[in-house]
Amino acid sequence: MMTIYPQLALSVTLAAAEAVPKIDEPDNIYHMLIWGMVLILFLVVGGAGLLWLRHRIAANKASMAGAFSLDALQDMRASGELTEEEFRTLRDAALPIDVQALVQEQDDKDPNSTLSHPANGDDEDR
């Protein structure tokens, strides 16, 4: 067991008491108020930034809602609004995958596939 000398214990206690800042001093209160205001300002500005970002993302999603889907492009091709070449160009631009490989794979499985053949049946490439 360890023996603590009373004089050493008293000096450690006094040193610890002197290290703690005193709240009632005007200088310390002033610094606490300043940093408190800085923290509140940071939270308000950060919250406003997050709200702006959320609004921006929602607006971006709303503008994407009017974009063409693959089904809409196929319907436009079937009704004659798009030529086969326009359809393929838009389809290839909209899909981030290798469409030619998919078309070839589908043709290997099903020669009457609508992926490579237009809806009306006349394809210039074949």
Task: Please provide a written account of the structure.
- There is one protein chain.
- This protein has 126 residues and is mostly helical.
- It folds into two domains: 21-64; 68-126, no CATH class.
- 67% of the residues lie in helices and 0% in strands.
- It has helices at 6-19, 26-64, 70-79, 84-94, 99-109.
- α3 (70-79) runs antiparallel to α4.
Tag the structure with descriptive keywords:
mainly alpha, 2 domains, 67% helix, 126 residues, elongated
Give the secondary structure arrangement, pairings included.
Blueprint: H1 6-19, H2 26-64, H3 70-79, H4 84-94, H5 99-109
Helix pairs in contact: 3-4
What is the compact description of this entry?
This protein is 67% helix and 0% strand.
Name the helicity range.
55-70%
- Gyration radius from CA atoms, angstroms: 36 Å
Average pLDDT taken over every residue: 75
Q: pLDDT under 50 segments (min length 5)?
A: 120-126
What's the N-to-C terminus distance?
96 Å
Share of residues in strands: under 5%
Helix-strand topology string: HHHHH
